[in-house]
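Team,

Forwarding the record for the chain on the shared tracking sheet. I've put the sequence and predicted structure together so nobody has to dig through attachments.
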Amino acid sequence: MRDSGGSFEPSRHKCLIYEGDPSEQLPVVVPLLVDGLTDNWRCLYLGSPDTVELVHSALADRGVDTEREGKRGALVFSSDRSHLVDGKFEPQAMVDGLCISIDEAVKQGYGGLCATGDMKWELGTDSNFDRLLEYEALLEQVFRDRPLRGICQYRRDSVPSHAVRTALLAHRSAYVGHVLNRDNLYYVPPELLLATGEGSAAARQGEWMCQQIVRVLKAESARDDALAEQVRLAEQLAELNRGLERRVTERTSELEVANRHLEAFSFSVSHDLRAPLRAIRGFAKILADEFADRLTGEGREHLERVLRNAKRMEELVEGLLSMGRFVKSDMVRTPVDLTALSEEIVRDVKEGEPGRSAEFVVHPGLGAAGDPVLLRAALTNLVGNAWKFTSRRAQTRIEIGRHGDESGKPIFFVRDNGAGFEMQRAHRLFGVFQRLHRAEEYPGSGIGLATVERIIARHGGRIWAEGQPEQGATFYFTLPPT
């Protein structure tokens, strides 16, 4: 594959060649995985049980909370060899499985997949290394098409010599030990390595190899200086990183203090607003009740606006106070029967509008671990939201159920056939006072979903929504399992 300049594109993944001891991979593999976790990529390490334990311990020594990262699905260790059928390695099967893992990571909110592993373990036997070139070519295309970072590892004392040669030929960037040669002079793009027969492909290969010889001659004189500069820059970068870590720690501490002050200020303002609002509303009502006959039509209209806006302001203040109580209240974690809880909420909703035609579907066996009071508030808001936005339907349908798992946590949902929303505006759903519909169409304070989001976050879960205009909406959320 050529770029606009006529040269071949560089390989998008690297290889690591180390002498023998598995610990030699750590200076390369650990930073790769740490960077992946920092960038919110799912990180996968594939190797023998011994090397898995070695890398696991090295990450823990680096300060990574491997238990927490594993529980949330961001860090995966595997010694799986299910891609080997009777000991035979199928490159396409391995690549297909990798693509599925990448797509699942993206679907679950990660930036992509950061993967590395020992090629001897992946391929199984020396005879399988004969298919390495085919595998590298397929893998290169995956790196081009999907969000994938990776390093293929080759241990010189345990893989055939031709496999090491193929590794150098198929990767432009190669680590030798822990030193990265970013311009692997032995690199040949997979397109050329796999070209067969005579014609344009062979001609391109000959032209390309001549270019490499010239590059080798020019590079030798500058190589030592470049390596020295690389060491200097690495030391400089390490010092900058240390300074950055100190500043991040300081800013984090300052932010925590500022957040506490902001919470106290918001709570105080909300409380202090209630008295004058009640006074405004009270005196406006007196005017409306006792002096309406002295007002003109326009005056009465202005007075009605004052009453409506004062009432709405009171609702907003009450919503803020309510959200503050839910967010700051102590949590009592216990198994919660979400099916029974949902049925109680549905009963209350129906009693509020007994004449309305509606179908409610509550799945059986819904359960999670959490605070019953907070989860009742969250479900009440979600069901109430669905009830409100289906008010213009001749037949309302609301469903409460479960939809699979995410990182070991059950995914629950509340689905309706109501007004829906445009997906490009979905990011506004959980903001305080954010509304996607006019208040004249569907009244509300714009605080309910923000409260739900904070309750779910306190339980260590997340919430998101899908919908289309006039096609209904579905709110998904995760909670700890019972």
